[in-house]
């Protein structure tokens, strides 16, 4: 009886171990070093949930995103860290410079590399930042540099806009559109993305009206037919939808981005067989930076009785696009 009592007493004195942020962080780093990036992301997300204010955790997951080519997601995190730490976590500047270099945004890569070197005289990444600047060095005339910087500024806006649209942050996208329209009035292509964001933010009739006006100006516009097919399908106006989807079924564009737009529109409006064929003919390397490529390709595959193909696409998409990992497998929503 005495031994049982002691055993019970020892059991009552056991303190349960509750993992903290550092535990999850260590697990994430171990997975990252083994190049198991999807597992690393899961552990690091747990670390951030345990300690949302620790900038080290967010910087580390941004590094994982960089490794898998999710540069937009990485940059978003790094900017948040700088904002939340009032620019104290200066390693972010080098990490941003590296990501912008990968994206081809040379002006922003140079700017962040120089900021890092200015703030970190003897920083860990000093040699890397100097090497990055050497690679980007050029002897163009000053006038050419100004022209380049203006074009580069547009690309930066496009990057931010792309992130908001991918994340379905419609209100943020609309605010950015208004700013872009003031700064770049001659860049007309973005107006179609504006009506798209307008529609899904709840201003359905205004979006349709604006897109119809654009179609009247350019009757053969793929962007307009694609948007209107989506808008009418979503609002249940099937007669109008059929007219615009028919215009897309007879068109086979040259550019991969236009091909993707048609494929996504077909899949999103239930034309799965034709959509699947379009997806199969895409050059993956040119369109896999769009989460919609993986989402709607997987849906089309599933609807046509190819569940293993659908699962493979979805899992690959979640690894490359962290925004997808927070969703249920999309065919459950259809």
TrEMBL record:
<dbReference type="Pfam" id="PF13181">
    <property type="entry name" value="TPR_8"/>
</dbReference>
<feature type="repeat" description="TPR">
    <location>
        <begin position="21"/>
        <end position="54"/>
    </location>
</feature>
<protein>
    <recommendedName>
        <fullName>Tetratricopeptide repeat protein</fullName>
    </recommendedName>
</protein>
<dbReference type="InterPro" id="IPR011990">
    <property type="entry name" value="TPR-like_helical_dom_sf"/>
</dbReference>
<dbReference type="InterPro" id="IPR019734">
    <property type="entry name" value="TPR_rpt"/>
</dbReference>
<keyword id="KW-0802">TPR repeat</keyword>
């Amino acid at each position: 009886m005495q031994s049982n009592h002691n055993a019970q007493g020892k059991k009552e004195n056991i303190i349960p171990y509750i993992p903290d942020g550092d535990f999850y962080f260590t697990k994430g780093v171990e997975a990252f070093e083994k190049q198991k990036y999807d597992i690393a992301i899961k552990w690091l997300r747990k670390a951030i949930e345990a300690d949302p204010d620790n900038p080290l955790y967010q910087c580390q997951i941004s590094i994982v995103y960089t490794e898998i080519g999710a540069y937009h997601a990485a940059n978003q995190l790094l900017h948040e860290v700088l904002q939340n730490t009032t620019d104290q976590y200066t390693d972010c500047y080098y990490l941003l410079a590296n990501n912008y270099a990968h994206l081809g945004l040379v002006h922003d890569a140079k700017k962040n590399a120089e900021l890092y070197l200015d703030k970190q005289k003897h920083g860990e990444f000093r040699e890397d930042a100097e090497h990055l600047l050497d690679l980007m060095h050029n002897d163009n005339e000053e006038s050419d540099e100004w022209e380049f910087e203006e074009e580069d500024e547009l690309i930066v806006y496009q990057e931010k806009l792309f992130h908001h649209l991918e994340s379905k942050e419609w209100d943020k996208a609309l605010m950015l559109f208004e700013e872009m329209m003031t700064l770049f009035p001659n860049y007309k292509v973005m107006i179609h993305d504006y009506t798209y964001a307008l529609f899904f933010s709840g201003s359905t009739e205004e979006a349709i009206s604006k897109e119809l006006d654009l179609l009247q100006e350019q009757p053969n516009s793929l962007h307009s037919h694609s948007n209107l097919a989506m808008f009418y399908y979503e609002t249940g106006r099937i007669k109008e939808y059929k007219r615009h989807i028919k215009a897309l079924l007879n068109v086979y564009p040259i550019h991969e981005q236009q091909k993707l737009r048609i494929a996504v529109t077909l899949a999103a409006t239930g034309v799965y067989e034709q959509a699947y064929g379009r997806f199969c003919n895409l050059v993956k390397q040119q369109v896999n930076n769009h989460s919609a490529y993986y989402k709607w390709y997987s849906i089309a595959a599933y609807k046509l009785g190819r569940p293993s193909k659908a699962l493979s696409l979805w899992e690959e998409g979640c690894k490359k696009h962290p925004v997808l990992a927070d969703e249920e497998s999309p065919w459950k929503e259809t």
